[in-house]
């Protein structure tokens, strides 16, 4: 995954359903489904999760918020009356079973995205009746306490990874069911609004979008510590690249990850030199360059070609004080090396 602080195009938002770790049945129940039928004291709600509030079937806001929406009063920061963790986690906190990798009875995408996945409507930019900041911060915004460095009762790794840490499967290289740009930027890419130069306090903070909001206080101390990730603190945690995950990401090449980037096809000496010089900004004084970029270019040549590339680059470096950023001057001073490079081949 490239520069973790930048916006990552939507084409990167791929889902590989075959990646299943603990709780495979839970993930299969996600994305708008409530999982098993919901049992209350006297009523078994069989169709909870079908996106229809069937009052004649016993469904209500109290026992099936995913279909009927949250009851009036849910979201007022007071857990009272008929409110419970099963029908109003934003007031009462998430149930103890939330996070056990199984979408249990009483849990749904509206009350426990960590186990049941996000609801189908989450991400449509409308905070629906069955959504809250706890279940869908993408639509409803961050909960007020998200960002206070404490994982409060209403927060989970899905709704506030900055406080609670990222969920277990996050950073495996795959945008799994239940993950999105908010809950797992390392795998799914950062949200589309991130990178517009404006830190929107409603749905962005230093953890969600360091590019707009700046780095979090501990970022830059040389230690990749929870809840830091490659997306929130590239300086400490490196880039978000996983091999293999079917995507050729930044700093991956055919030489180090052919599973993602394909097998290397050896190229000629002059092509490698051209590639290597593209990694060097000769207009800077001293020249700015990426060692990794140069190494990746050189890795594409056979042994003889790499030898002659070395001669050209060594000569070029020796003549930088004289030629500066004048590539024509470098070609003149290193004419013999360029000629040998041009005639190099891998047939021997």
Write the layout of secondary structure elements.
Blueprint: H1 24-28, E1 38-39, E2 44-45, H2 65-68, H3 89-92, H4 113-116, H5 137-140, H6 161-164, H7 185-188, H8 210-213, H9 234-237, H10 258-261, H11 269-277, E3 280-281, E4 288-289, H12 291-298, H13 303-323, H14 327-333, H15 335-342
Antiparallel strand pairs: 1-2, 3-4
Helix pairs in contact: 11-12, 11-13, 13-14, 13-15
Structure description:
It is a single chain. The chain is 27% helix and 2% strand. By secondary structure, it is mainly α. The protein has a two-stranded antiparallel ribbon with strand order 1-2. A two-stranded antiparallel ribbon has the order 3-4. The longest helix is centred in the C-terminal third of the chain and has 21 residues, at 303-323. The two termini are 38 Å apart. Residues 1-43 have low confidence and may be disordered.
Low-confidence stretches: 1-43
User: What is the radius of gyration?
Assistant: 27 Å
**Average of the residue pLDDT scores:** 84
Series of secondary-structure elements, N-terminal to C-terminal? HEEHHHHHHHHHHEEHHHH
What is the overall shape? elongated
Q: What class, by secondary structure content? A: mainly alpha
Q: How many strands, what sense, and barrel or not for the largest sheet?
A: 2 strands, antiparallel
Number of helices: 15
**β-strand amount:** under 5%
Strand order of the largest sheet: 1-2
Total strands: 4
Q: Which percent range fits the helix content?
A: 25-40%
Straight-line N-to-C gap:
38 Å
């Amino acid at each position: 995954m490239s520069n973790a602080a930048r916006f990552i195009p939507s084409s990167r938002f791929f889902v590989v359903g075959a990646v299943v770790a603990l709780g495979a049945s839970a993930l299969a129940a996600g994305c708008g489904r409530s999982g098993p039928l919901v049992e209350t004291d006297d009523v078994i709600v069989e169709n909870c999760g079908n996106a229809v509030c069937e009052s004649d079937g016993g469904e209500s806001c109290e026992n099936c918020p995913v279909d009927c929406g949250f009851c009036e009063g849910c979201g007022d920061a007071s857990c009272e009356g008929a409110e419970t963790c099963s029908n109003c986690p934003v007031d009462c906190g998430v149930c103890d079973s939330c996070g056990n990798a199984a979408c249990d009875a009483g849990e749904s995408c509206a009350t426990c995205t960590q186990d049941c996945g996000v609801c189908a409507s989450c991400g449509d930019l409308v905070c629906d009746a069955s959504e809250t900041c706890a279940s869908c911060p993408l639509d409803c915004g961050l909960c007020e306490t998200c960002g206070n460095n404490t994982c409060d009762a209403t927060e989970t790794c899905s709704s506030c990874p900055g406080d609670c840490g990222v969920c277990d499967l996050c950073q495996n290289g795959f945008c799994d069911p239940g993950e999105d740009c908010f809950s797992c930027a390392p795998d799914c890419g950062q949200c589309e609004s991130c990178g517009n130069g404006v830190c929107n306090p409603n749905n962005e903070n230093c953890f969600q979008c360091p590019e707009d909001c700046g780095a979090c206080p501990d970022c830059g101390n040389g230690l990749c510590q929870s809840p830091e990730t490659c997306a929130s603190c590239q300086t400490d945690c490196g880039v978000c690249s996983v091999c293999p995950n079917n995507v050729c990401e930044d700093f991956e090449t055919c030489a180090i990850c052919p599973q993602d980037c394909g097998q290397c096809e050896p190229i000629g000496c002059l092509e490698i030199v051209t590639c290597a010089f593209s990694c060097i900004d000769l207009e800077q004084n001293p020249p700015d360059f990426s060692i990794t970029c140069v190494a990746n270019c050189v890795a594409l040549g056979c042994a003889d070609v790499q030898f002659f590339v070395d001669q050209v680059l060594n000569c070029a470096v020796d003549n930088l004080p004289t030629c500066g950023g004048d590539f024509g001057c470098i070609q003149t001073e290193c004419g013999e090396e360029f000629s040998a490079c041009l005639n190099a081949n891998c047939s021997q």
